[in-house]
Amino acid sequence: MERNENGLLGDDSDPNASFTDAEGSIYSSDIFLDYVGEVILSHDSDVLSWKFVESLQNEEDKSSCLGMKFVSKNETEVKFSDIYAVDLIGWGPVHASAGKFLFGQSSESEMYRFAVHVVLKSKNNSSHWIPSVYTFGHKNLEICKTWVTQINSYLETEAKRPKSLMVFVHPKSGKGQGRNIWEAVAPLFSQAKVKTKVIVTERAGHARDVLASITNKELSSFDGVVAVGGDGFFNEILNGLLLSRHKAPYPPTPGDSKHPIESECNVSTHSAERTVAESRNSNEDQSPLLLDSEHIVPQSPNSEQEPSYCFPNELFRFGIIPAGSTDAIVICTTGARDPVTSALHIVLGKKVCLDIAQVVRWKKTHDSKVEPCLRYAASFAGYGFYGDVITESEKYRWMGPKRYDYAGTKVFLQHRSYEAEVNYLVADSEKESSVSPETNAEGGGGRKLWCLRKKSDRVSCRANCTVCNDTVIGAPNLQGLKWLKSKGRFLSIGAAVISCRNEKAPDADLTHSISLTRTYTFSLQCSFRISFSCAGTLFSLQGAVGPPWILILSNIIKLEPSHSNLWGKRVYGMWMVSYL
Ligand SMILES: Nc1ncnc2c1ncn2[C@@H]1O[C@H](COP(=O)(O)OP(=O)(O)OP(=O)(O)O)[C@@H](O)[C@H]1O
């Protein structure tokens, strides 16, 4: 079969024909697209495209020859990277577009069909993804099968897509919809032929315990772990995986901060395994979410039972499907608080680099044999007001997400403050505009929130922003940076690794920032907005009562100072000693 220059197909063509061009691309005539009409379907290595064919018998246009099929100038295509599944769906009706006929006589006709499942971006909000399906039909089953095989072979070359995932579902997350949310998105995974091992959690710490005890061999059979829940649940999963596997240098001890930053590079790496910490009896960790949990503390490399395991490996992914109360991590990474959007991101193998904060509660004294207690946080770590809000809000979990409003107001009215010393490294780009907190807070504008930047100077961090998309991996050059210090009484101290944007704080922009709210800095609005946005992520910090503890932002995948922020400074690292 041949086409002429205008793309016209001869009427004498074999109605069931398909042919291959010089590049191996298939073209099929007499393929029908449901609710559209006849199309010519073709593909190259990136896209599946079709052109509409309209029978001139039904057209007013007399300029073409009778019996010839006109190829419209409208062309539609879908990228293979946006196709998440293709299925043969057997014999059934295919419909003409409104007011048109198939084969010149009927508004629908029966034929074999195959469905191409694609992701479309919402017209109103491009972050919002919608699953959509194009149903194609042909009288010849073999042609349908050939197309399914051809499209599937392209999808298989998308190597970054997961094939097998471990899914943890928190049934009581947020408004208690965790299980329903998973059931709503699970068909997307089965359509995309992604195998899932689903575990519905029965208690706090369940997911963490499973991940801490699973062998590395078993873990390697999965391409990733998905949390169906809120930010706190995601952090629990992150900790379950990383605490026993991630080999990261310790942050500097409090004493090290007096020295130049080079000392940070000399710290030795460690490995870790799960043990009951010596400190358990001393009641150090009073995390309300993990009351019965065991501490997980670093151990010497020799204590590892299994061979050294490099984690995370290149392809392993953490996924999150929002079901929680705030879902700041999802909003920051996909731009939408939508379980379907998240599920589609996961099945298509989309990725975004995420920095992780390493939170270390240091040993009590330099001579102590007790190793530091580690936690990891993906979005925010807070102390003072934030910790109090999360502790208080746990008593009112039955209220659902509203508990944060109630607990936040209650804690705010208590107006507690904490004496602390915060040491931090200021990112290069901040140096020129940085003002010492000591100078600014205690000087002329005592009521001013220090570090507040002009709106015009701020670069917003939103989903797919250029800084987050930058895939440069590696630690920044910290040579020559000096620790700065701020000491005094604080209402709250927070450190953010992502912007923590959420529905209550849609303009929050806290990436790599610290925020110190002084007792005499009356910043009601800021305190509230920050704390509510990130409250679910603070479980690892509830034990900040007692011994000194240290918090450092450390890179697992990428550490990049980025984005201006409203409330604080951008920092490479920080540690804090509390005096309680
Ligand atoms: N089956 C369960 N029952 C009770 N608690 C659970 C269960 N499964 C997990 N958890 C704990 O609940 C905590 C909070 O979960 P999650 O973050 O999903 O909910 P949320 O607090 O409503 O949401 P957000 O964190 O977005 O505010 C987790 O840290 C986890 O330890």
TrEMBL record:
Domain called DAGKc: residue spans: 160-363
Top-level taxonomic group: Eukaryota
GO cellular component assignments: membrane
Gene3D superfamilies for this protein: 2.60.200.40, Probable inorganic polyphosphate/atp-NAD kinase, domain 1 (3.40.50.10330)
Biased composition (Basic and acidic residues): 271-283
Region (Disordered): 249-288
PANTHER family (UniProt xref): CERAMIDE KINASE (PTHR12358:SF6), SPHINGOSINE KINASE (PTHR12358)
Protein name: DAGKc domain-containing protein
Organism: Penstemon smallii
Lineage: Eukaryota, Viridiplantae, Streptophyta, Embryophyta, Tracheophyta
